[in-house]
Specification:
Layout: H1 8-16, E1 21-27, H2 28-31, H3 41-52, E2 56-62, H4 80-97, H5 102-105, H6 110-113, E3 124-127, H7 142-159, E4 164-167, E5 170-171, H8 182-189, E6 201-205, H9 211-227, E7 234-240, H10 254-270, H11 272-275, E8 277-282, H12 313-322
Parallel strand pairs: 1-2, 2-3, 3-4, 5-6, 6-7, 7-8
Length: 325
Amino acid sequence: VPQESLSSADFQRMTQANVGTVRFGLSRESVEPADNQFNFLPTDDLVGDIAAAGIRPLPNVSGGPGFGNPNDRVLPVGSAEDQAQWQEFLRVAAERYGPGGEYWTNPSLFPAQHPGAQPMPVETWQIWNEQNGPKHAVKPNPRKYAKLVKISHTAITSEAPNAEIVLGGMFGTPKGKGGIKAWTFLKGLYKSKGVKKAFDGVAIHPYSPDLQGIVKQIKRVRAVLKKKKDRSAGVWLTELGWGSSKKGRLGVGTKKQAKLLKKSFKVLLQRRGNWKIRGVLWYTWRDAPSAAAPCDWCITAGLLGQSGFEPKPAFKQYVRFTGGS
């Protein structure tokens, strides 16, 4: 999960490191600056570069339109018009980036931008981000989020019938007034009729100072899936990480960052069958300037230093699991 724009050197290094998936934000605001006027060109560049590097793109879709005065934390389910416009955005995106989509088949797009490269269409779509916390949703509400998931599933699968729909990554115990624990939010979600058929996987951001906290969060989520008779649902860890400095809540230092990566990845591999782990994404690829980092420890959460040319001990552990270099 990158924090900043990726360079050609980043993609080259990702290929060498055998990165399998890059998760990126696909906000409605960024592609629909005016009503019914879509501009996917900047997203084309990113998706094309990811695919040309042999990596699967994973869009995290969220946000409001780029016109009017939208609040991008408000789920677009307040009115029939809000829902219809959100669905239109998703249909256009799925038609463009899904299997057989316009971006991959139009000779002037991916084939021209990356001659000879193999298309890597979007197969998995993640709906919103940390919807159980006040940072990304005004007054987190499982019922409203369930509605969003259902209408999103309908829109995406109308263009990409085999698409995998994944819930937005839930922070285990979100901070801030109104936050709802991930497993409690998930229980509330299942109270909405028909929602079980609208998603294939649950995503969590199980940040914790130690491995035990991660294991506990996964078990709590899997317990809900078992109780709701949805054991086939996969679990994605769409953010997982620590900082290599000792600043901030999850700043643990260079050596411990590498140690925790090794221990957590090892456990997740060992239990991937029982827990139905579908994917694990490290947050983040490389360090960010302090002004660009969204949290106190995120500044040094990268596998690489800020320049992208400084592999940390955590990077060396990472490539041992991926088989890269």
